[in-house]
Amino acid sequence: MVKRFNPDKRRRPKVDDYFGDWKWREALAESMVPIVGKLYRNGVRILMYGRPLLNCSALEIMKLHRFVREVEGNELSEIETYPVLEQISKMKLMPCEIDIGEMVVHLLQNKQLDSEKYVDKSLVEQKRTKRSYPLRPKDIVIYGFGRIGRILTRILISDTGAGAKWRLRAIVLRDSGHDDDLIKRAGLLRNDSVHGAFPGTIRVNKQNNSLIINGNEVSFIYSDNPKKVKYKDFDIKRATVIDSTGVWRDEEGLSQHVKNPSVERVLLTAPGKGKIKNIVFGVNDDKASPEDKMLAAASCTTNAIVPALKLIDDNFKIINGHIETVHSFTNDQNLIDNFHPSDRRGRSAALNLVITDTGAAKAVAKILPELKGKITANAIRVPTPNVSLAIISLTVKRGVGVDEVNECFRKAAFGSNLRETIDYSNSIDAVSSDYYSNEFALVYDSQATISNFNNVTIYCWYDNEYGYSRQVVRLLKKVLDVNLVRYPKQ
């Protein structure tokens, strides 16, 4: 069994009245809920070691406080965090993200610091002194309303915040010809068999052919030609289009979007071909800029394996390796046996394990050219609806133990520029369904790591729908230059 991380840096005195302590902390957590909501409406997102507190119940907030033990060896108490949150709520801040967990732990580990002065000094540059947002929010359009399109809609609406920096303005899709098309689209957005109910309200406006989603009016435009979409009729200007159809993946195809006078750029939610840059946020997003007219967010698998490979290569130097992805079935497969142009994928997805190919190795070489020719890859499609697993077996330059590999990933997940990309699990009972709607590109399973001198095998879970969509949105914010500054800074 792999040794579990537990430095127990801060030994908390035991309480005499567990129930009384619980009720006290529960009351504080309940008081946090409206404060977090008010800050969000003013553009300030509160996090607990990367996990958002927005829309969390009091009990969920308490669970997040306990989660901190996975990072720091001891949970946080609401008694410790509430005063800091209350102080933040009284400050007039420009839009930003504040990780209250990291901030409070820093205070607890440096008891000589004055709490109020530390918080004030940490956030001084975010104090609102002038207009901190554009005169007009930047327009976003989703082209395609399948699995990824609908999840992106959920995320973009939930991340709108004060609504000053950007707004989801429209969704472009093919007309089904059904009289109740808009109602059915609303139903698919409202209830999802995998990710559950939409956290908010959705109203159908038949007159405008739009949905009012948490107060955001999103127009539904029927078209099958990107160049001919009449965005101007909807007052959409200089839009960023997220193409989630996968129909066009090269420069010639994607250029149809930017030839529309109302479109500034297009972001593809699939691997780009030819000269299209493939970007994995957290790894090579420095190559993406607001000047790029066409970008690709690569694939869900590429987003899951590339950060892990880069971390291993940077720390231990990869000689060679193989990646096997155990991937949930997708719409590309047949529910029952039927013709399919690809080998094996014509067989029933619900009844079989299906060996298939993957472009993961080629994608790795594009993003991490130093690994070109060193990595092979294959995939197995399995009869589960969501969450996949990358099994990465590598030969590295020197001998390395399990604990050293785990510590490398733990530090990356909680204290590096990959903290938005890599999640870390210490659970001995983790299974795939535990990671439905997980926000990270990958979840490193520390309990599954294997090491035999310089041969290392790691297991990385990833929500191939939600986690990937989050990566797309992170890249979107990067190219729109609307990423929120996160405090405390690393």
Mean pLDDT: 92
The 3D shape can be described as globular
**Which CATH class of the largest domain?**
Alpha Beta
The first-to-last residue Cα distance is: 32 Å
Low-confidence stretches: none
Question: Which range does the strand content fall in?
Answer: 15-25%
- Do you know the CATH topology of the largest domain? Dihydrodipicolinate Reductase, domain 2
**How are the strands of the largest sheet arranged?**
8-9-10-5-4-11-12-14-13
Number of helices: 13
Largest sheet, if any? 9 strands, mixed
Would you report the number of β strands? 23
Integer-rounded radius of gyration: 23 Å
State the share of residues found in helices, binned by percent. 25-40%
Which structural class do the helices and strands define? Answer: alpha/beta
Number of domains: 3
CATH H-level superfamily of the largest domain: Dihydrodipicolinate Reductase, domain 2
Instruction: Please give the CATH architecture of the largest domain.
Output: 2-Layer Sandwich
Family: Belongs to the glyceraldehyde-3-phosphate dehydrogenase family.
Protein name: Glyceraldehyde-3-phosphate dehydrogenase
GO molecular function, one term: NAD binding
EC number: 1.2.1.12
Question: What is the secondary structure topology, with strand pairs?
Answer:
Layout: H1 18-41, E1 44-48, E2 51-52, H2 58-67, H3 69-72, H4 78-89, E3 96-99, H5 100-109, H6 115-122, E4 138-143, H7 147-158, E5 166-173, H8 181-190, E6 191-192, E7 196-197, E8 202-205, E9 210-213, E10 216-222, E11 239-243, H9 251-258, E12 263-268, E13 277-278, E14 294-296, H10 300-316, E15 318-328, E16 354-356, H11 360-367, E17 375-382, E18 388-396, H12 402-415, E19 422-425, E20 442-445, E21 450-452, E22 455-462, H13 466-480, E23 486-487
Parallel strand pairs: 1-3, 3-23, 4-5, 4-11, 5-10, 11-12, 12-14, 13-14, 15-17, 19-20
Antiparallel strand pairs: 1-2, 6-7, 8-9, 9-10, 15-18, 16-17, 18-22, 20-22, 21-22
Domain Glyceraldehyde 3-phosphate dehydrogenase NAD(P) binding: 138-300
GO molecular function, one term: glyceraldehyde-3-phosphate dehydrogenase (NAD+) (phosphorylating) activity
EC number: 1.2.1.12
